[in-house]
Amino acid sequence: MKHHLLRLGIYLSAAGLAACASQKQASDPAAKPSKSLAAPLGERAPRNAEDPITAPAAPAKGTVAITGATLLLGTGDRIEDGTLVFTEGRITAVGPRETVKVPKAARVIDAQGRWVTPGLIDTHSHMGVYAVPHVKATADGNEMTDPTTPYVFSEHAFWPQDPAIRHAVAGGVTSIQVLPGSGNIIGGRATTLKLRPQLEARAMRFPGAPFGLKMACGENPKRVYGNRKAQPMSRMGSVARLRAIFIKARQYRFDQEAFEQEHKKWQEKYDAYKAGEAGAKAPGKEPRRMDRNLGFETLADVMDGKIKVHIHCYRADEMLLMLSLGKELGFEISSFHHAVEAYKIADVLAANNVGASMWADWWGFKLEAYDGVEENAAMLAAAGGRAIIHSDSNIGIQRLNQEAAKALHSGRRAGLALDEDEAIKWITLNPAWALGVDKQTGSLEVGKMADIVIWDQNPLSMYSTAQQVFIDGQRVVDRSGPPHTWSDFEVGTRMQEVAP
Amino acid sequence: MNALQVSLLLAALGAAPAQADPVALVGGDVYTVSGAMLPGATVLMDKGKILAVGLDVAIPTGATVLDVKGKRVTPGLIDVDTQLGLVEVSLEPSTVDGRPRLPGPVHAAVDAADALNPMSTLVGVARRHGVTSVISSPSGGLISGRAAWMDLVGPESAHLFEAVQGSVAMRVHLGRGGAGAWGGSRATAIARLREAFDDARTYRRKRAAYDRAALYDLSASRLDLEALDPAVRGRMPVVVAASQASDILAAVKMAKDEGIDLVILGAEEGWLVADALARAKIPVILEPTMDLPASFESRHARADNVVLLAKAGVQVAVSTRSNHNVSRLRFLLGNAVRAGLPPELALRAATLAPAEMHGMGAQYGSIDRGKVANVVVWMGDLFEPFSFAETVIIRGEIQPVESRQTRLANKYIRRLKLRSTKK
């Protein structure tokens, strides 16, 4: 209990930084209060338990220059025989070798014949919330007790010791969005993490990344609840529940705003009275604060555009319906996930600037996936849309580069005019955009985080392997050494016994 | 007798050919698998069989001749752990025949061949990526039943309903799968399995007493015991799913005691017992990208498992262990190569190796005279995503390399006019 209070104290002191202006005024020693009054409840509780107890990983010290590589920039362009420099975790120079001056202090990595990409980004991972080994005790990704759970946070279940994480990083993945599962219509908040394992999820948060909201349409919620003879047991029920909770959340937001205005008036009276201003009357009873509602807070942030919406949605007609519902209920969709029918509405998705996160070739495991085609991502890209390759799998995440290659070449075989640099975007800049972190990562551009992969050959080859992976300039994979078995679960296994 | 003589002889006998013309692939780099790669060679096929392979093959008049110079010619790929044709949409029970619901743990009498649908939409998707045969197996129970071999001919094929051969293997689950099917322990599962095998032998030896009802109760039904007979005599391979090293060793011991022809399926921890498998000459079917400790049975899973097994001398077959993603087989082979498996062993792992371990090596798995004419012509390295299967020949017939899925894509490519779109 004592420990618990200590933590609370840390949260409150952190929240104090954001305390409202009127309080600062009230605590100003120059403004001597002349009247004695009970302090207002004033300070709002911190919104969420977001702040880590332990320190996040710091960017790497020093300067590194990677020279002579083919730089696949993630922007749709490339530089042959290029040089890339990063310092203190940020990219400081990118260009053809002859145009980039390598600083004297730099550690130089000769990458002649090698290929460099931005760190890969997966918009759809359940690592940590469905950690391996898959046993009852590690199944933490679906709060299937209520079809709308906007109040749960995937990061509260994320187990940073998941042994799958190091395999994803070895595949060149540097950032992931960890989502709740799709059993619920609204599954909860998703968090974007950088894959430098720490002792807690909060210390792995991508700095400045917005939360995501996981939603799901189609078969999963109606199967989960329908099997219990509960709502929703049909797509109709799902949509009705979705509308109902957003309508309530909107009312909550109106009520909240009304309260804030009322409280502001009261605070002004209070401050004037306390400061002993002439003619100031006693402020009366402080207006009663509304109870916090974590679910409505999430949805209010969604309606304010502070949280990115990611909807698990397979069928074209349902994606169109979700676009309509978004307009009615006041949310914008960042990307559809598992969008196996994105190709049918590629023009609409492109026109609405909505991304689609897709597999290269998964299909048919349920009816809403029966029309899945290998050309899906390529068709969306050819229509000018935001194609993204995601994994939804701790096996698939290890080879996003191969998945992009398969999706690209399926499209080319079907006659679509697409190049390799477009396919690299599907696993770098486009997912960064969908997660709202494209100003910070996703491409090899000056000022961005030094999230970088050095491949032994073209990453769109099946034989390509990530030789070195950097996150914030820190080298987290070096293929020349033994695998870094970070997870406590792997202690005592015989993984390093046979050198391959 | 050369190829021409064979065809002349067949013509003289008036044999009605399934396909009007023989097919000749001329000038390709022929990866026979059974022997060395033959650059610039010709493969001649007729009446469903390979008639001749070599640099010097006379092509009969009337043959369909394909110039495949500079292209790779391989045996058709074989995926041996699937439910292709048993499952259309995994989560729709009305389309699933792969998991019978039966009382008791012994389902030996179930034969996948009786349920297989060769017109499944999954067939075209797999074939387009060069898979020409699969083994489909029932699942569930301790003894799941018998697997069937299916050649993935197209719906227009003259061989459509001949392309299935039942009873090519008996399927068994050990480890947690077996424990879950009977008694809740690995020990109960093995005991029950031994009892079933023993009863199958008793049934054969004391058939008369059984028929007079003068025999103690046997642990399985008459049909199950009959179905187990070839398995306990070592005449039908028994494919045992086992992941954990100790379960693999338990299966090896049981196979020795019972005299069965064992194949291990899964084998995520196989590398830990690779030498024991090699000594006992037990082959393994595995999915090479299963490198996570996905369960407590596979704590020691690793990406180079396939390499370590092959190095120890174990015969390995690679399988997608999937239904809708059988198309990925060639990419799994690419990943096995990436992990260190020599490319020729990778190709063997999806051709001759799986055929041999199912007793089908005399008919399938290599480009040799007399074998079933399942042959694929590849544009480029088949393990790479930029390559593709240009021509797929199954039972001597040139097959469509399209599927319901490619038709869907093309429908919308036309509708959205995507081919003219500039990036």
Can you characterise this structure?
The complex is a heterodimer of chains A (500) and B (423). The longest helix of chain A is centred in the middle third of the chain and has 40 residues, at 235-274. The two termini of chain A are 50 Å apart. Chain A has a domain at 126-237 and 294-441: Metal-dependent hydrolases (TIM Barrel), CATH 3.20.20.140. Chain A is built from twelve helices and 16 strands. By secondary structure, chain A is of the alpha/beta class. In chain A, strands 1, 2, 3, 4, 5, 14, 15 and 16 form an eight-stranded mixed sheet that branches. With 423 residues, chain B is α/β, with parallel strands linked by helices. Chain B has a domain at 76-365: Metal-dependent hydrolases (TIM Barrel, Alpha-Beta Barrel), CATH 3.20.20.140. Chain B has 13 helices and 16 strands. Chain B is globular, with a radius of gyration of 23 Å. Mean pLDDT of chain B is 94; it is low at 1-18. At the A-B interface, α9 and α10 of A face α2, α10 and α13 of B.
Helical fraction of chain A: 25-40%
Proportion of residues in extended strands of chain A: 15-25%
**Helical percent range of chain B?**
25-40%
- Estimated structural class of chain A: alpha/beta
- CATH class category name of one domain in chain B: Alpha Beta
CATH architecture of one domain in chain A: Alpha-Beta Barrel
Spatial separation of the terminal alpha carbons of chain B: 58 Å
Task: Give a topology summary.
The complex is a heterodimer of chains A (500) and B (423).
Chain A: H1 2-16, H2 21-26, E1 63-72, E2 78-87, E3 90-96, E4 107-110, E5 115-118, E6 120-125, H3 164-170, E7 173-178, E8 186-194, E9 212-216, H4 219-226, H5 235-274, H6 294-303, E10 308-312, H7 316-329, E11 333-337, H8 346-351, E12 355-358, H9 376-382, E13 387-389, H10 400-413, H11 420-425, H12 429-434, E14 452-455, E15 466-471, E16 474-478
Parallel strand pairs in A: 1-4, 1-5, 6-7, 9-10, 10-11, 11-12, 12-13
Antiparallel strand pairs in A: 1-2, 2-3, 5-14, 7-8, 8-9, 14-15, 15-16
Helix pairs in contact in A: 5-6, 9-10
Chain B: H1 3-13, E1 23-31, E2 37-46, E3 49-54, E4 64-67, E5 72-75, E6 77-82, H2 121-127, E7 131-136, E8 143-151, E9 164-173, H3 175-181, H4 186-205, H5 207-211, H6 222-232, E10 238-242, H7 245-258, E11 262-266, H8 274-279, E12 284-286, H9 305-311, E13 316-318, H10 329-338, H11 343-348, H12 352-357, E14 375-379, E15 388-394, E16 397-399, H13 404-415
Parallel strand pairs in B: 1-4, 1-5, 6-7, 9-10, 10-11, 11-12, 12-13
Antiparallel strand pairs in B: 1-2, 2-3, 5-14, 7-8, 8-9, 14-15, 15-16
Helix pairs in contact in B: 3-4, 4-6, 4-7
